[in-house]
Design brief:
The chain is an alpha/beta fold. About 35% of the residues lie in helices and about 20% in strands. It has 9 helices and 13 strands. The strands form 3 sheets. Strands 1-2-5-6-7-8-13 form a 7-stranded parallel β-sheet. A 4-stranded antiparallel β-sheet has the order 3-4-12-9, with no helix packed on it. A two-stranded antiparallel sheet has the order 10-11. Strand 7 (about 160), helix 7 and strand 8 (about 185) form a beta-alpha-beta unit.
């Protein structure tokens, strides 16, 4: 299988949600792969804090956004990729972009840096274009076109991070895989979500709408269900995330 060829240990991937220094340090423990932070050509959602609100234990309303550009993170990525390659560990480079031109530029940069897998996070496309999109099917078709554009630029395997609002994951994956996508990453935050703070019970998050996404352990049952849907459809190239906090979560 593709991941068996790419990863030393295909069962464990260290996430870019960790601080950069800690992420580089985790390479010493030889995970299957590391996912670097998700970056873009420009800052996205640069609203003031609070960015994250604790809903209850291990469950968060998250409106963090992207606060470091690809170029701003280039030196860190070079260091991480160099160290990972010395240990035969694959590096997944993730990006968020709002239009085709920026997507093509991001792919070129990641290709030049030596990323082993390039991952598209299509969430901004939905957020910025949802007024034009009547439903899930139209969004799936839009992403399929973008995947084809990416595959025209690189021979590096491409991963797609499923937005949490995609319900028919098997249908979406059939379309995206037929467009050339190699890996299904399930899943991103469940949107929308917010947190109302006492005593006024107004949205606490600093985003203009007061909205974000639901992250943490509370979305794990949804993530597992969607991974099961893909697995039951015969798919094997899956990165499973969403609510994975401790060892038992990894087992599940």
């Amino acid at each position: 299988m593709l991941l068996d060829k790419l990863l030393v240990n295909s069962r464990l991937i260290i996430s870019g949600g960790l601080p950069e220094k800690i992420l580089v340090k985790t390479i010493d423990y030889e995970p299957g792969a590391i996912t670097l932070g998700t970056y873009s050509s420009e800052f996205i959602a640069t609203h003031p804090p609070p960015w994250i609100a604790k809903v209850f234990d291990d469950c968060l309303a998250n409106a963090y956004g992207v606060r470091k550009t690809i170029m701003g993170a280039a030196e860190f990525m070079k260091e991480a990729i160099r160290k990972a390659k010395d240990r035969n560990i694959s590096v997944i480079c993730s990006f968020l972009e709002k239009n085709h031109d920026r997507i093509k530029k991001a792919v070129d940069i990641y290709h030049s840096l030596g990323c082993d897998i390039i991952e598209l996070n299509p969430m901004p496309l939905y957020i910025t274009m949802q007024t034009m999109l009547p439903g899930e099917k139209s969004f799936i078709n839009l992403v399929s076109k973008i995947i084809k554009t990416i595959k025209e630029q690189t021979t590096v395997p491409v991963s797609i991070k499923f937005p949490g609002f995609i319900n028919k994951v098997a249908d979406a994956w059939r379309s995206w895989k037929s467009s050339g996508c190699d890996i299904a990453h399930v899943m991103n935050a469940v949107i929308p979500a917010t947190y109302l703070a006492p005593p006024n019970y107004k949205p606490l998050l600093g985003s203009p709408s007061g909205l974000g996404g639901l992250t943490g352990r509370c979305i794990k049952p949804i993530a597992i269900a969607k991974v099961m849907q893909l697995g039951n459809s015969g798919e094997t190239e899956i990165i499973g995330t969403g609510g994975v906090i401790e060892q038992e979560d990894v087992r599940k």
